[in-house]
Amino acid sequence: MKALITGASRGIGRAIALRLARDAAARARDAAIVVAANRPSAELVSIAAEITALGIRVLPVSGDLADPATPQRLVDEALAFCDGLDTLVCNAGITAPAPLAGLALDQWDRLFAINSRAPWLLAQAARAALAGSRGAYVAIASMSGLEPHVGHGAYSASKAALIMLCRQLAQEWGPAGIRVNAVCPGMIRTPMTEPIYQDADIAALRDRIVPLQRVGRPEDVADVVAFLASRDARYVTGEAIRVDGGFASSILAHVPGLARSGE
Questions:
Q1: pLDDT confidence of 258, banded at 50, 70, 90?
Q2: N or C: which end of the chain has fewer CB within 10 A?
Q3: d(CA 58, CA 232)
Q4: For the purposes of burial, counting CB atoms within 10 Å of the CB of 61, is it exposed (0-12), middle (13-18) or buried (19 or more)?
Q5: Backbone angles phi, psi at 30, to 5 degrees
Q6: pLDDT, tens digit, for every residue of 114-158?
């Protein structure tokens, strides 16, 4: 495995990096992983150390994906370190809650720059390498890209654009052997969302409204990404896979007055 993972220092990205590294170590494969974050940090050093401890070569890198020059640089660093690339996971993303009526132009532009434009530029930069390896591109979108997330400004629109980007890339790049898929997490308990779950009542309510009766963990998303990056998913492309415990499809279960099924 020769992989580049953005947004890899914490949360879902960290779980993805560890899952891919563990899979490579279990198969005794010569692997190299580049973990990227928006800036150097103790968390980035920590994930690199954990991967090294598994016997996998790792390179921590950093850069602001809102800068249009950063995606090419990150891919160039990954290609030099890994001597190629067969897996690109675009996990980095941001949110900036705000009502659309009062949303500032710079907020809209920054969300689209990081959530939609950067994954496109990363894909462009990595295309030749992924074609050479007949590799996989996986983008972490959101259930908010499938359904409107009221009050979250440009987030839903930017993630919807990312999903369509993946669908279009899958069609255009399929003949080159590149598989392109999006993963759409639902409610996932991560360091970014942890303050919400410090309220025990809210945490319990969120668990109850998910059909599988729990909020997701980063590892739930990482497992799906590992599948999509593997040869087991060799005939899967152009998909937007929900990883939400059934939540996004449960709207009718919350309509007052409807009959409820038994156990």
A1: confident
A2: C
A3: 24
A4: buried
A5: -75, 115
A6: 999 999 999 999 999 999 999 999 999 999 999 999 999 999 999
185 strand-pairing partners: 243
What's the rounded Cα separation, in Å, for the pair 12 and 104? Answer: 28
CATH number at residue 79: 3.40.50.720
Domain count, the chain: 1
DSSP per position, 63-121: --TTSTTHHHHHHHHHHHHHTS-SEEEE-------B-GGG--HHHHHHHHIIIIIHHHH
Hey, CA dihedral for 95, 159, 218, 197, is it positive or negative? positive
Tens of pLDDT, residue by residue over 203-228, are 999 999 999 999 999 999 999 999 99
Q: What is the pLDDT of residue 28?
A: 72
For residue 109, tell me if it sits in a domain: yes
- Asked whether residue 262 is domain-assigned, the answer is no
Q: Which of 137, 155, 197, 235 is the catalytic position?
A: 155
254 in a structural domain: no
User: Is 155 tagged catalytic?
Assistant: yes
